[in-house]
């Protein structure tokens, strides 16, 4: 029996951070052993709100590819590919646009939220409003069984499933119903930024990057949001909403010791600096090997591009098969 298919991707708009790691990268490293996994560098989608800055997208294709390799996404097990080099995705997008209403696109809660934050004003790029359709094509061209994503991407997988059903109804059974795979807990799905103000994100400037140096990491950990009412060491402190403890819950392997720290902090007598120093150690142990592997891969960017070329070739083969079936089903297979 053939393996089930998984597809995920990221917009190459900046380097990946530890929030990406706990929310999705870790899962991909596991899934690649069990499934046929495609990991996409969504450069076309990145251009939907960076049309004026193609160099940024271009540069980040390599950055994100390096992050993938550094954390252990293995090109022998996963096909890592570049979206823009699969023209069949663009072709499917055009066909799929007929299966979606403008009103449906305007209701997409993630897109709505993004539009609010992007300050497009009255000139929302049509490509941006329509990117969920393009993302449906990303998912359906490989006929993915599973799409591992954060909660914010659930509307996209739902959109893809709707398009798949409608396509099948109009033209015949071609597509499977893609299912989302979500992070194992809310804490993993929404790792807070170091400022404790919201989810970790590049645009909020509150991220710890996988490629951060040891010094940067130390500075970031030392500046982390804790309990603002924990003024003197003797004071009892709060661990709820305290980012340092949230991170220890996610990254600390020694659960018993973390519990001890929590108890001590809540009783009073444990200073923030001490807990932060321990968290730094925990994160440094986690990031050090990733950083090292990343530097090794970064020495040979040609090799990385070659790997992407091979992954893209694999994805393209699948795309070719899919589009043949789609064209036949749609009665546009003329010659
Ligand atoms: N929209 C996703 C993000 O912003 C990236 C993405 C593009 C994606 N195509 C995809 C994710 C297909 C999963 C499946 O992170």
* Count of DSSP strands: 5
* CATH homologous superfamily heading of the largest domain: HUPs
Radius of gyration: 22 Å
Distance between the termini: 33 Å
N-to-C order of helices and strands: EHEHHEHHHHHEHEHHHHHH
Beta content? 5-15%
The total of helices stands at 15
How many independent structural domains? 2
Largest sheet: 3 strands, parallel
Q: What would the principal axes of the Cα set say about the shape?
A: elongated
Adjacency order of strands in the biggest sheet: 1-2-3
Instruction: List cofactors, ions and other ligands.
Output: tryptophan
Name the poorly predicted regions. none
Helix content: 55-70%
CATH topology-level name of the largest domain: Rossmann fold
CATH secondary-structure class of the largest domain? Alpha Beta
What is the architecture of the largest domain at the second tier of CATH?
3-Layer(aba) Sandwich
Output mean pLDDT: 95
Brief digest:
57% of the residues lie in helices and 7% in strands. The chain has 335 residues and is mainly alpha-helical. The model has no long low-confidence stretch (mean pLDDT 95).
What are the main properties of this structure?
335 residues; 57% helix; Tyrosyl-Transfer RNA Synthetase; 5 strands; binds tryptophan; three-stranded parallel beta sheet; mainly alpha; two-stranded parallel ribbon; Rossmann fold
């Amino acid at each position: 029996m053939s393996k089930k298919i998984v597809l995920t991707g990221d917009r190459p708009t900046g380097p990946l951070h530890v929030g990406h790691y706990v929310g999705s990268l870790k899962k991909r490293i596991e899934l690649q052993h069990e499934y046929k996994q495609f990991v996409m560098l969504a450069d076309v989608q990145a251009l939907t709100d960076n049309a004026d800055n193609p160099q940024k997208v271009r540069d980040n294709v390599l950055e994100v590819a390096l992050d993938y390799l550094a954390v252990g996404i293995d090109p022998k097990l996963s096909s890592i590919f570049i979206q823009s080099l699969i023209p069949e995705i663009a072709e499917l997008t055009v066909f799929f646009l007929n299966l979606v209403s403008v009103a449906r696109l305007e209701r997409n809660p993630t897109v709505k939220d993004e539009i609010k934050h992007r300050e497009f004003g009255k000139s929302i790029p049509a490509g941006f409003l329509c990117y969920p359709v393009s993302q449906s094509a990303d998912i359906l061209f490989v006929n993915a069984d599973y799409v591992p994503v954060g909660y914010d991407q659930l509307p996209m997988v739902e959109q893809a499933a709707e398009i798949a059903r409608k396509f099948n109804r109009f033209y015949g059974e071609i597509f499977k119903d893609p299912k989302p795979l979500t992070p194992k807990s809310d804490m993993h799905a929404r790792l807070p930024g170091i400022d404790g103000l919201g989810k970790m994100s590049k645009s909020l400037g509150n991220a710890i990057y996988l490629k951060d140096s040891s010094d940067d990491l130390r500075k970031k950990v030392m500046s982390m949001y804790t309990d603002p009412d924990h003024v003197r060491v003797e004071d009892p402190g709060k661990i709820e909403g305290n980012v340092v403890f949230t991170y220890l819950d996610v990254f600390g392997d020694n659960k018993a010791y973390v519990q001890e720290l929590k108890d001590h902090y809540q009783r009073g007598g444990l200073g923030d600096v001490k807990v932060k120093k321990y968290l730094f150690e925990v994160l440094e142990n986690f990031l050090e090997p990733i950083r090292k592997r990343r530097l090794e891969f970064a020495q040979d960017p040609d090799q990385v591009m070659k790997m992407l070329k091979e992954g893209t070739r694999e994805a393209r083969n699948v795309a070719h098969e899919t589009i043949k079936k789609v064209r036949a089903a749609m009665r546009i297979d003329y010659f």
